[in-house]
Design brief:
By secondary structure, the protein is α/β, with parallel strands linked by helices. The chain has helices spanning 3-11, 14-17, 31-36, 43-54, 65-69, 76-80, 87-101, 106-119, 123-138, 141-148, 158-162, 171-175, 198-202, 204-217, 232-236, 240-255, 267-274, 276-279, 287-296, 300-306, 327-331, 337-344, 367-370, 372-388, 399-411, 423-431; strands at residues 180-181, 189-193, 219-223, 261-264, 297-299, 320-323, 350-351, 393-396, 419-422. Keywords: 4Fe-4S, Electron transport, Iron, Iron-sulfur, Metal-binding, Repeat, Transport.
C-alpha cells in the first residue's frame, strides 16, 4: 500500500466507513435523499464515496465536494442506523480533508478568513453587528431600502432573510445585560451561561430571557466573560483547527466559573459544546478537560426540567402549538423529552405533533444561504406538515430553525395567522417575563 493511500485512509477515516453495511435504513430519514432522489446525496452513498477514496478507487477526491457540500449534517442517519456508523465523524473528516486540498479564489479565501477568524470569534464584532442591525431597523433605513427593491437584487437571496431578521435590542439595552443573576427562592444549581456568537448578535433578547428564566427556576446564573464562538460553523466548513482553537478558549473560560452546568439555548451550539470531548480526544493535553466540559454541557430545557419546570405559567386559552425539533438537539445531544415537557406543561394549549417531526427544516447553519434552492425544497416539505397541524404558533429551540420557519411562514403567506418563536420566548411570555 502506498504512503499516499495510507494518508488518505487516515484523513478520511476510512476504517469508520466499514461499519456501514449499506442497509438503507438511513434513506427515509435523509432530507437530501428525500428531495433530490440521488444515491450520492444519501448517507450511505456519501459513505461509499469516502470508502472508494480509501480503497484507491477514486483518484480525484474533488468529486466528493458536491455530495458532501449538499449534506445538511443533520445526522438523522446516526439515529436511524442499526450498526452505529459514526457518520458525523466521517463527514467532518472528509470535509476537512477536501478544504485542505481546495484552492479557493482570493476573494473567497479572504472572506472565509475574515468571517471564521475575525468576526464569529469576536464578541466585539458580534456586538457591533447587533448594534448595526438595531440602527438599520430603527433609523428608517430599513424601510427605505425595502421600498427601493434593492433587496431583491442581493446575492444568495439575502433579501429574503433580511425581511425576517428579529428586532434587535438597542446598544443601551445590550449594555444592561446582567453578568450574574441570583436564584429566585431556593438555589438549586449554579450554571454558567453560553451566549453564542449569532445568538448574542441577533437574538440577544432570547439570551436575556434565558438568564431570567434560569434564575426564576432556581439557578444562580453566571454569564462567563472571555467566552467565544462554539466553533460549529468552522467545523461544518472543514476548518477543524480553528474549531479546536475556539474549543480550548471556551474550556479555559468556563473552567473558571466552577459551575454545575454549562447551559446553552441553541441546538447547533449545544451539539458542538457537547462534542468538545470528541473534538479534542486525540490531544493529550486537552482531552480530559474537554471531556469534563462536555459532561457539564446542557441545553437550557434540561436544566429547567431538572429544576422542576417553570412555575406560575399563565393559561393560553386553547392555542394550537406545534414544535419544530432541532436536528442537533435530537440526533447529537439526544435531548428530546425536555423541550416537549416544558411546552406541554403550559396550561391551556393544544399541542399538535407534526408528521415527520424529526425531519430537518433545511436551515443547517448557513446551508440555507449557500444552498438556497435545495434548502427551500426541504423547507417546503416541512411546511406541508406544519400547515397540516393547524397550529398558530411554531416553537423551535435553535436560531437557524427559528429563522427558517419564519421564512417558511412568509413563503406560505401565513404571516398574519402563524408565528414562530423560540421555546424560551414562549415560556417567558407564558410566565409574564419580558
Amino acid at each position: 500500500m502506498s504512503q499516499s493511500l495510507e494518508q488518505l485512509q487516515k484523513e478520511f477515516l476510512y476504517e469508520k466507513t466499514n461499519s456501514c453495511v449499506q442497509c438503507g435504513y438511513c434513506l427515509p430519514v435523509c432530507p437530501t435523499y428525500a428531495t433530490m432522489g440521488k444515491e450520492t446525496h444519501s448517507p450511505r452513498g456519501r459513505i461509499n464515496l469516502v470508502k472508494m477514496v480509501g480503497e484507491g478507487k477514486i483518484k480525484d477526491v474533488s468529486v466528493l465536494e458536491e455530495p458532501l457540500d449538499l449534506c445538511l449534517g443533520c445526522r438523522a442517519c446516526e439515529t436511524a442506523c442499526p450498526t452505529g456508523v459514526e457518520y458525523g465523524s466521517i463527514l467532518e473528516a472528509a470535509r476537512a480533508a477536501l478544504v485542505r486540498r481546495k484552492k479557493f479564489s482570493a476573494p473567497v479565501r479572504l472572506l472565509r478568513k475574515t468571517m471564521f477568524k475575525k468576526v464569529f470569534p469576536s464578541s466585539r464584532m458580534m456586538k457591533l453587528t447587533g448594534n448595526a442591525l438595531w440602527l438599520y431597523q430603527k433609523s428608517g433605513i430599513q424601510k427605505v431600502v425595502q421600498s427601493s427593491g434593492i433587496m431583491k437584487k442581493l446575492p444568495y437571496h439575502l433579501g429574503d432573510f433580511e425581511a425576517i431578521a428579529p428586532p434587535a435590542v438597542s446598544p443601551a439595552e445590550r449594555k444592561q445585560t446582567p453578568v450574574r443573576v441570583g436564584a429566585k427562592g431556593e438555589k438549586k444549581y449554579t450554571v454558567a451561561f453560553f451566549t453564542g456568537c449569532i445568538m448574542d448578535a441577533m437574538f440577544q433578547r432570547i439570551n436575556r430571557l434565558s438568564v431570567l428564566l434560569l434564575a426564576e427556576a432556581g439557578c444562580d446564573v453566571i454569564v462567563v466573560p472571555n467566552q467565544t464562538c462554539c466553533g460549529a460553523l468552522h467545523a461544518h466548513s472543514g476548518e477543524m483547527e480553528e474549531a479546536r482553537h475556539l474549543a480550548k478558549q471556551n474550556i479555559i473560560a468556563f473552567e473558571k466559573a466552577n459551575a454545575d452546568f454549562i447551559v446553552n439555548n441553541a441546538g447547533g451550539c449545544g451539539a458542538m459544546l457537547y462534542e468538545y470531548g470528541h473534538l479534542l480526544a486525540d490531544d493529550k493535553e486537552w482531552a480530559d478537560r474537554a471531556a469534563a466540559f462536555s459532561t457539564k454541557s446542557r441545553d437550557i430545557s434540561q436544566v429547567l426540567i431538572a429544576c422542576g419546570g417553570m412555575p406560575d405559567l399563565q393559561p393560553r386559552s386553547g392555542e394550537r402549538v406545534t414544535y419544530q425539533r432541532s436536528c442537533h438537539m435530537t440526533n447529537v445531544q439526544k435531548v428530546v423529552r425536555e423541550p416537549l415537557e416544558l411546552l406541554t406543561n403550559v396550561p391551556g394549549i393544544k399541542f399538535v405533533e407534526m408528521e415527520e417531526a424529526n425531519m430537518c427544516c433545511g436551515s443547517a447553519g448557513i446551508y440555507n444561504i449557500v444552498h438556497y434552492d435545495e434548502s427551500m425544497d426541504i423547507l417546503d416539505e416541512k411546511m406541508k406538515h406544519t400547515k397540516a397541524t393547524g397550529a398558530s404558533t411554531v416553537i423551535t429551540t435553535n436560531p437557524g430553525c427559528l429563522l427558517q420557519m419564519k421564512l417558511g411562514i412568509q413563503r406560505e403567506n401565513l404571516s398574519g395567522s402563524v408565528r414562530a418563536m423560540h421555546l424560551i420566548e414562549y415560556l417567558a411570555e407564558a410566565a409574564g417575563i419580558s
